[in-house]
């Protein structure tokens, strides 16, 4: 009995593509109703391919594919709206968002809300110079949607509200634990954690604290695996010094 299933007319974004054989590609795709999928686009690298020029990140697509257990087959792909034009830091930020979805989401697990969050974020990246606040908002919402919401309301072991003037060590598996001093990369004032919760990112200190907090929390959720886009960003910063 065949386990093939034809899926038609799904809104989608390509997260990553890589060559396969002489003329094909394997695509990692975020879809609206089916979550993250992997498909092969046969012959898509040939000059006469009907897919030529459209199978790339940040191009809103409508796709159909033949679903299989491990690797589906792309059947149709059409552009659905204007391409998103990202350049410089915005382009790197877009690839960072892509890598987070690739690393944090399981395949074939529907995530309509994450699809909408990603779509909104990618579009906003092309319209603003305030990239860091936008990415921090994306990270916070993404963690919540996959079941790892930040605890910025109360002390983990006592369940008391955070004291703005007390120091807390944020432990990714628990949340804030009160400590006596500000030593350690994951130690914050209660006021700083509350400001992150309120997403008061026009404050430079809050933005820096949020970056530090989210970097460690995401690293924990990834099991310590390094994000390639972070390596690129860090290398660029070193070259600028």
Keywords:
241 residues, alpha+beta, OB fold (Dihydrolipoamide Acetyltransferase, E2P), de novo design (two linked rop proteins), 2 domains, 5-stranded mixed beta barrel, 3-stranded antiparallel beta sheet, 8 strands, elongated
**Gross morphology:** elongated
* CATH topology assignment of the largest domain: de novo design (two linked rop proteins)
Number of strands: 8
Major sheet strand order: 1-2-3-5-4
Mean pLDDT: 92
**Total domain modules:** 2
CATH architecture label of the largest domain: Up-down Bundle
Q: Biggest sheet, open or closed, and with what strands and sense?
A: 5 strands, mixed, barrel
User: At the fourth CATH level, what is the homologous superfamily of the largest domain?
Assistant: Recombination protein O, C-terminal domain
Low-confidence stretches: none
Elements, N to C (H/E):
EEEEEHHHEEEHHH
Beta fraction: 15-25%
Number of helices: 6
Distance between the termini: 62 Å
Structural class: alpha+beta
Cα-atom radius of gyration:
20 Å
How much helix is in the residues?
Answer: 25-40%
Can you identify the CATH class of the largest domain? Mainly Alpha
Question: How are the secondary structure elements laid out?
Answer:
Blueprint (H helix, E strand, L loop, with lengths): L4 E16 L3 E8 L3 E7 L19 E7 L4 E8 L8 H17 L7 H14 L5 H15 L21 E5 L3 E5 L7 E3 H8 L6 H18 L6 H13 L1
Parallel strand pairs: 3-5
Antiparallel strand pairs: 1-2, 1-4, 2-3, 4-5, 6-7, 6-8
């Amino acid at each position: 009995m065949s386990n093939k299933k034809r899926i038609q007319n799904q809104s989608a974004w390509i997260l990553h593509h890589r060559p396969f054989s002489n003329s094909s590609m394997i695509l990692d795709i975020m879809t609206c109703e089916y979550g993250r999928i992997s498909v092969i686009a046969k012959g898509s690298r040939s000059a006469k391919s009907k897919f030529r020029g459209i199978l790339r990140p940040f191009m809103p697509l409508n796709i159909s594919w033949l679903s299989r257990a491990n690797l589906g087959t792309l059947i149709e792909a059409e552009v659905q709206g204007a391409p998103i034009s990202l350049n410089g830091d915005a382009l790197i930020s877009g690839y960072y968002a892509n890598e987070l979805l690739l690393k944090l989401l399981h395949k074939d697990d529907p995530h309509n809300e994450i699809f909408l969050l990603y779509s909104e974020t990618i579009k906003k990246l092309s319209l603003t110079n305030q990239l860091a606040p936008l990415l921090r908002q994306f990270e916070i919402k993404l963690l919540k949607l996959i079941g790892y919401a930040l605890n910025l309301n109360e002390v983990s072991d006592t369940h008391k509200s955070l004291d703005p003037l007390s120091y807390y060590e944020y432990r990714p598996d628990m949340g804030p634990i009160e400590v006596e001093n500000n030593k350690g990369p994951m130690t914050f004032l209660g006021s700083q954690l509350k400001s992150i919760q309120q997403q008061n990112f026009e404050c430079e200190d809050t933005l820096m604290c949020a970056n530090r907090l989210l970097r460690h929390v995401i690293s924990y959720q990834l099991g310590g695996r390094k994000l390639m886009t972070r390596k690129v960003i860090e290398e660029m910063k070193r070259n600028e010094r």
